[in-house]
Amino acid sequence: MFIEPKILKGFRDSLPSAEIEKRGLIEKIETLFRSFGFVPIDTPALEYAEILLGKGGGETEKQVYRFTDNGGRDVALRFDLTVPFARFVAEHRVPMPFKRYHIAKVWRGENAQRGRYREFTQCDFDVIGVDNAGGDFEILLMIDSALKALGVGDATIRVNHRGLFNQFLTRLGVQEKSGEVLHLVDKLAKVGRGAVLEGLTKTVGGAAEKILDFIESKGRFEDVLAKITEMAGEKATVHAERLALLHKFMKDAEASASLVLDPSITRGLDYYTGVVYETFLNGLPEIGSVCSGGRYDDLAGLYSKEGVSGVGASVGLDRLIAAQEALGKPRTQSSYVHVVVACMDEAMFGVYQNAARKFRDAGVNCEVLLKKTDKLAKQYILAEKKGAAWMVVYNGGVFTLRNLKTRENKSFQSAEEAVKAVLSGGVERELRKNDAFS
Amino acid sequence: MFIEPKILKGFRDSLPSAEIEKRGLIEKIETLFRSFGFVPIDTPALEYAEILLGKGGGETEKQVYRFTDNGGRDVALRFDLTVPFARFVAEHRVPMPFKRYHIAKVWRGENAQRGRYREFTQCDFDVIGVDNAGGDFEILLMIDSALKALGVGDATIRVNHRGLFNQFLTRLGVQEKSGEVLHLVDKLAKVGRGAVLEGLTKTVGGAAEKILDFIESKGRFEDVLAKITEMAGEKATVHAERLALLHKFMKDAEASASLVLDPSITRGLDYYTGVVYETFLNGLPEIGSVCSGGRYDDLAGLYSKEGVSGVGASVGLDRLIAAQEALGKPRTQSSYVHVVVACMDEAMFGVYQNAARKFRDAGVNCEVLLKKTDKLAKQYILAEKKGAAWMVVYNGGVFTLRNLKTRENKSFQSAEEAVKAVLSGGVERELRKNDAFS
Question: Is A302 within 8 Å of B353 when comparing Cβ atoms?
Answer without folding.
Answer: no
